[in-house]
Amino acid sequence: MRCSDLPKFWEYKHKDANTIMTIDKNCFASDNYAGICPEAWHAMNTANNGYAISYGDDAWTAKACAEIRDLFETDCEVFFVFNGTAANSLALASLCQSYHSIICPESAHVETDECGAAEFFSNGTKLLLVGAENGKVVLDEVEHTVKRRTDIHYPKPKAISLTQSTELGTVYTTAEIAAVGELARKLDLKVHMDGARFANAVAALGVTPKEITWQAGVDVLCFGGTKNGMAVSEAVIFFDRKLAAEFDYRCKQAGQLASKMRFLSAPWIGLLESGAWLKNATHANRAAAVLEKKLSAIPGVKLKFPREANAIFIEMPPEVCEKLRAAGWRFYTFIGAGGARFLCSWRTTDSEIDALVSDITRFSTP
Questions:
Q1: What is the pTM of this model?
Q2: The CATH homologous superfamily of the domain defined by 3-36+276-364
Q3: What's the pLDDT tens digit per position in 203-235?
Q4: Cys bridge to 276: 39, 74, 229, 358, which one at CB 3.0-4.6 A?
Q5: Using one digit for the tens of pLDDT, what is the confidence trace for 231-278?
Q6: Architecture in CATH for domain 38-274
Q7: How far is it, in rounded angstroms, from Cα 75 to Cα 73?
Q8: What residues contact residue 115 under an 8 Å CB cut-off, 6+ apart?
Q9: What is the largest CA-CA distance in the chain?
Q10: Who contacts 304 (Cβ-Cβ below 8 Å, separation ≥6)?
């Protein structure tokens, strides 16, 4: 990478100070853009001492698995992979045969942003899309989709995939997940949860992780570490251990079995032992709440969905979007159901919020 390819920074004069503050205008594009949090960095550095057995047979990985079992208060099977696409697609492949189907909302990440990985790794399992309300699957549509065809010519529904928090920034409540779990048992479906922002959901609900996973009927969770402050690493957690049979072979075949596994697992120890996993998510959610309040006060700006975690979707005049981008702000407008998406992370600051709000306000003023 050349020096000219590095991120550009812009100067912003804070309204309450005479100092010039440096603002990286990439800061709200995605929580993926944030770097590694101190706890994860320290854990990786600590693990980088001497030698360790390869491919997950090391003490760091064993301890990380034990920490996750303690967190969820159950004897689950745990695997670590590099990214969320691999976590979701391999987990779903473990639930289904090629002639099965997976039910998910139209906005699900496995449908819109994973390049057909679920179908690829399951050798053709079909995604069946159903309607959703604010990103949450409509249960009547799930039941209709399962029951409308039962003949051999139709891909047999086998799993339902939820995203927690959703692609629209909303959060399934404990009761809503339990209702999904109950319907799944009734219809003989397995429940997969895409938890790329699972920590944000836990922080938003103020519940224990078990209450919105295995106790509510979730069979497998893909617990996101990257968006929570790690460099890489997602944990695939099978609460139904039988479903994890030969999952290690799936990981190997898919290029997801890390030789130096301790660098995927050690950061989990750092985040879980210190409580940073929840602290980081709580900070991101609170920052989003502050940003939501300030954006709501700007004429011409309209919130598209309830802000329940760390994502905010707004509608604003096209010319404001153009001016924001021309000023260097990076944000997405194709994710979810349209509108401009702004995401807060573990490291979002008040100064970054003020800078964004200041520019949107300025560009919205006739």
A1: 0.93
A2: Aspartate Aminotransferase, domain 1 (3.90.1150.10)
A3: 999 999 999 999 999 999 999 999 999 999 999
A4: 39
A5: 999 999 999 999 999 999 999 999 999 999 999 999 999 999 999 999
A6: 3-Layer(aba) Sandwich (3.40)
A7: 7
A8: 85
A9: 71
A10: 168, 313, 314, 315, 337, 338, 339
